Amino acid sequence: MTEFKDMELREDILRAVFELGFEKPTGIQEKVIPEILEGKGDIIGLAQTGTGKTAGFGLPIIQETDVNTKAVQCIILCPTRELCLQICKDFKQYSKYVKGFKTLAIYGGASISTQINGLKSNPQVIVGTPGRTLDMIKRRKLSLTHIRQLVLDEADEMLNMGFREDLDAILKDTPKEKQTLLFSATMPSGVRQLTKKYMDNPVEIVIGKKNTGTADVEHEVYTVRAADRYLTLKRLLDINPGIYGIVFCRTRAETRDVAQKLIEDGYPADAIHGDLSQAQRDQVMHAFRNHSIQMLVATDVAARGLDIHDLTHIVNYNLPDELEMYIHRSGRTGRAGKKGKSLIISHSREGRKIQSLEKITGQKIVRKSVPRGEDIVQKRLYTLMDNIEKIVVDEEKIAPYWEEIKQKLDWLDRDELLKRLIFLEFNRFVEYYKNAKDLNAPEKENKPKRKNKERKNKERPNGKEIYKKSPVAESGFTRFFINIGEKQNIKVHNLIGLINENTRNRNIEIGKIDIMRKFSFFEVEEAFTTQVLNAFNDTYYHDTKLVVEISKPDNKVKARPEKEHAYKKEHTYKKKKGSKQRKRQRR
Ligand code: ADP
Ligand code: MG
After folding, report:
1. Backbone phi, then psi, for 42, in 5-degree steps?
2. Total structural domains in the chain?
């Protein structure tokens, strides 16, 4: 394992690196830093977000900068204002002990004259968004004719955002003899073209599998009914008290809506989307950065380039339309060796999408069930007790009130005091989750087919048990007559299949089934009587129009001529999920 100190980095740079708490170079840094320091050749760096690319190019660029020359020596182009500011801030930290080193961020949505003034102080390294950079060049405030290095950071995102023409225009006036570094998390054909056009025999450094998520991210999916998305989100937030993350929504309207509801429900959340003014956006981002907001609800576009570290969770309120986008989302957590989680709230029909995501990310997406109310109450109780144990009381702060507190609460004994204290905090959850319903989508829609089969075998090793007498039969059931029987080759399973198919409700319990020569009887839970009658209205079995009627006890006798008795078969069936009969019938 390489260490920073083995990398020919100067003392003044190493000092800053260690102060930042970087102990060892990351994979991409290990490869990129020596490559930049030694060679002058072009480099393509492919690695996931959060793998430390900024320091990877930043440290050697700072080291190679000649602080005694006034011209701009290096330009770093990146897709968004946030990223621009972040990179600039990172560079300032890395160069803290490098005398005379100056860097400047230029980006849209902020005063251009301030930035023009900044340029006058001769920064050697510019970090810019393509739009504003081109603007500065056109205004003749910025010249790139002497640059030695060019960095295209998050090249895929720049192309996604439509900066292709701006890039062409900017690069046109740069010297041929320069080192070009391109960084990207993915390598779509647009980026490939860019490398062909602007790079000269580049070395390609790939860390990890291309196009995949980081291994430090655990992926979990919660399958619920579409209408329960919001309730599920709340439960996920409640079971993770320390959560600090982004909730991704599909549209601006949804973003606004979810954030609004969260705020109303008392969660420290806010929204960021394209309808906000720059000032509003800054305000939200400021609150999020200093953790006074724990959950940022955002659209993919608005979240682009937000470079917030130590996010504990990403919540996918909806899956993105373009599944590749999921990599960008989940890549915002699990950075620099820390573990992160990407939670997906999914609809029961999105099973196939989840499988595709597993392919794209190359990682397992774990199926989880939505926490129950009681799980959350438990968890919050433990957190509360934990907090009480861990809090360090600042004696000085409490001192002025201490006498008064003691006096007022003196009459409460220890147990009573504890109970009250806990209840004060805790009651909200107990109240809210009292009788909370199960949010998990019904299993039948949810379970992949193969699982069903496994379970079926377990429950019914010999396929015969289904004929066991049902303990509930007879009482609470309605008996029906149906005008098909052995003559039509009807077997018990055919009849069950017909009932299931026509009622479209597999939770109806079926009781006794009697199959006769030309007709049959079956029993169904009383509550579903009308449903069954309606279900068979105007239905056919092959060519026979079905007649289903409630069978009166005396009909029963009348309807059974002597002759038929000989053929009578009596089966009682208590329906279980995943029955063999039903399957066969449905095929
Ligand atoms: P990328 O550009 O690849 O998405 P960044 O450069 O933004 O990643 O780095 C992600 C995080 O990792 C930042 O918080 C950065 O300070 C941190 N980091 C970078 N290099 C190291 C390192 N060698 N050790 C520890 N943390 C690091
Ligand atoms: Mg980066």
Report:
1. -75, 150
2. 4
Residue 227 and residue 172 share a domain:
no
* Alpha-carbon torsion, ordered 290, 294, 298, 302, to 10 deg: 10
pLDDT in tens, 33-50: 999 998 889 999 998 777
Beta bridge partners of 541: 544
Q: Which residues line ligand 1 (CB under 6 A)?
A: 22, 24-26, 29, 47, 49-55, 307, 309, 335-336
Q: Which ligand gives the minimal distance to the CA of 49?
A: 1
Atom 10 of ligand 1, residue of closest alpha carbon: 50
Nearest-5° Cα angle at 21, 17 to 23: 80
pLDDT tens for residues 472-525? Answer: 334 578 899 999 999 888 988 888 888 888 888 777 777 888 889 899 999 888
| Residue range 151-164, pLDDT digits in tens | 999 998 888 778 99
Q: Do residues 160 and 54 share a domain?
A: yes
In a domain, 448, yes or no: no
Residues 399, 469 within the same domain: no
Whether the full predicted model's pTM is greater than 0.70, yes or no, is no
* 195 shares its domain with 221: no
Residues 278 and 357 in one domain: yes
Same structural domain for residues 267 and 136? no
Handedness of CA 31, 33, 39, 44 (dihedral sign): positive
Residue 577 lies in a domain: no
Gap from CA of 82 to ligand 2 centroid (Å): 11
Q: Which domain holds residue 394?
A: 375-432
Low-confidence ranges of the chain (pLDDT < 70): 1, 208-215, 305, 307, 309, 335-338, 443-475, 553-587
Strand, coil or helix: 211: coil
